[in-house]
Write a structure and sequence with these properties.
Radius of gyration: 21 Å
Bound molecules: nicotinamide-adenine-dinucleotide
Low-confidence stretches: none
Mean pLDDT: 95
Distance between the termini: 28 Å
Strand content: 25-35%
Largest sheet: 9 strands, mixed
Strand order of the largest sheet: 14-13-12-11-7-10-9-8-15
Order of helices and strands: EHEHEHEHEHEHEHEEEEEEEHHE
Structural class: alpha/beta
Length: 349
């Protein structure tokens, strides 16, 4: 049994609480939040769970193995370091941190102490994304040409993060899992329509260039009158359309694409269309967050490296930072800096 404490009982924290309670490999011992009323409300169905108003108090419990942090992004660096320094494994909500410098500190602290640091990129654990990964890895799609992703609705405006830091971690993490290589460069546009006090972008378009003709576009918005959660991966042989709002047939595989004739004769090459079958694979009905907390517990128990470990989350933060910088430079194309394995300190033998 991995004994866990959750920090943050706002919108997302209760989902972690519920999943740690129902996970056979974890025991929820404690919940911490600055807001006493919220804390009381969220923990009232679980009288055995102890509540804390400050993380420092909760961290003094020697029986706590791990801490899951679901507080606003700006607090992740400070709270995560405190938990790691108290010797606790950490599951951090996305984004791992509010800057690449803070993300680096978290990753290096966890590595030095031999603790598990995992980022909650929940979608990586959904059966649909896992199936997409298997289809791409099997070579079924052929050469990858593009990702086209739309994540828009009338979204909740946040004071501390813009639409990129709020929504893009989902799509960037899915792309980072699926694609065989990292992006080379990125360019982003964004706009803010909220009162000048916040100036947070509520609408953004990100374009990533992976080289060799592979491009990805991410469209993020809190302003759309309709909700769309669509992620298309286009290949030379087949393409996948992932609609997360579909209750049953979330994935559709299209045996459609272009066929190039006379490819060797540049000026006489012709293009026709291949219009084959469309099918939808059966997907298991499991809650991705339950799979995620089980994975977190198993990584602690066995010493395994999480699928979305600290380095994975740090790379996403670097992309978010680059997107933010590009928006500020009116869509300038920026080379993506990606932390390498070598950024991790070596553990003493
Ligand atoms: N994985 C997902 O799909 C997903 C979905 C939504 C939110 N999130 C992430 O979860 C995190 C929290 O988002 P939210 O929407 O629940 O925010 P929220 O504002 O609803 O809740 C945050 C809670 O943290 C508490 N808090 C703040 N500082 C604290 C501190 N120092 N110590 C203890 N408690 C503190 C607040 O009182 C509040 O109750 C964010 O990082 C967000 O990106 C992830």
């Amino acid at each position: 049994m991995i004994r866990v404490g959750v920090v943050g009982a706002g919108y997302w924290g209760p989902n972690l609480i519920r999943n740690f309670i129902s996970c056979p490999a974890t025991e929820l011992l404690a919940v911490c939040d600055l807001d006493a009323e919220r804390l009381r409300k969220v923990t009232s169905p679980y009288p055995a769970v102890q509540t804390y108003g400050a993380l420092e108090e909760m961290l003094q419990r020697p029986d706590l193995d791990a801490v899951a942090i679901a507080t606003p992004a700006g607090t992740h660096g400070r709270l995560g370091l405190a938990a790691l320094r108290a010797g606790k494994h950490v599951l951090m909500e996305k984004p791992l941190a509010a800057s690449s410098r803070e993300a680096q500190e978290l990753v290096q602290e966890a590595q030095r102490r031999g603790l598990v640091l995992m980022t909650d990129h929940t979608f990586l654990f959904s059966p649909a994304v896992q199936r997409m990964k298997a289809l791409i890895d099997s070579g079924d799609l052929g050469d990858l040409y593009f990702i086209d992703s739309v994540r828009i609705n009338l979204g909740l405006f946040h004071e501390d993060v813009n639409v990129v830091w709020d929504l893009a971690p989902h799509d960037l993490s899915i792309a980072q899992l699926l694609l065989p290589r990292p992006p080379l460069s990125l360019s982003a546009f964004g706009a803010s329509h909220a009162p000048a006090a916040s100036e947070q972008e509520d609408l953004a378009h990100l374009s990533l260039d992976y080289g060799d003709g592979l491009l990805a576009t991410f469209h993020l918005s809190w302003l759309s009158p309709v909700k769309i959660r669509q992620f298309i991966v286009g290949g030379s042989r087949k393409s996948i359309v992932y609609n997360d709002l579909e209750p049953a047939e979330k994935l559709k595989i299209y045996d459609r694409g272009i066929v190039i004739h006379n490819e060797d004769q540049r000026y006489r090459a012709q293009i026709s269309y291949r219009l084959g079958d469309v099918w939808s694979p059966h997907l298991e009905q499991v809650e991705p967050l339950q799979t995620l907390v089980q994975h977190f517990a198993r990584c602690i128990e066995k010493g395994d490296r999480p699928l979305s470990d600290g380095l994975f989350g740090w790379r996403i933060v670097c992309l978010l930072e680059a997107a933010q910088a590009s928006i500020k430079q009116a869509g300038a194309r920026l080379v993506v800096q990606r932390p390498a394995e070598e950024s991790l300190p070596r553990l003493a033998a």
